[in-house]
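Workshop exercise sheet. Pairs work together: one partner reads the sequence aloud, the other fills in the structure field after running the prediction. Swap roles for the next sheet.
Pair: D.N. / O.F.
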Amino acid sequence: MEGFNSTLLTRRGFAVVSSPGEADYALLRLSSPTARRPGTGGFSSRYDWGSLEFNATEQARQKAIYDAIPTIVDMNFNRPAAIPEIAESASALFGSYGSSTDAFLDVVFGIAEPEGRLPFDLPRSTPAVEDAMEDVPFDTRNPVFKFGHGLRYESKCGNEQWHSRC
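Structure field:
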């Protein structure tokens, strides 16, 4: 468990352990890779910049978790991120936009339904973004997920959207 207060799980009756080897699964809430522009003030200092990718040290740290235990990742997309290593290694990947930890846990534990669509492409790398045309939306070459990708449960009763009763 990482990125939120463990009491949210213990209140739900789950045990929180200190190492991945002791757990049945891991829950990670991460934010898009970002940096703050040094030496600037005012309006521009509020915007994220820098690589859209996690650095090698952070990728290795995450990989050790993914390799040790089934992992569910919730990525807070305050901006697009180049995270193919997470999409390929995590057991599940959720995208969120500032939702609460309780909302994330409700989806993980089946209390609420996941739903939504990406409002942008998730690129495979920072160079893929740099190679894209600035004035053409959704032209990222070979993205991890395309604009509009998303998830909804489908009903076992037919083609209608999932709901608790058929």
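Discussion prompt: Residues 9 and 15 are 7 Å apart (CA to CA). What would you look at next?
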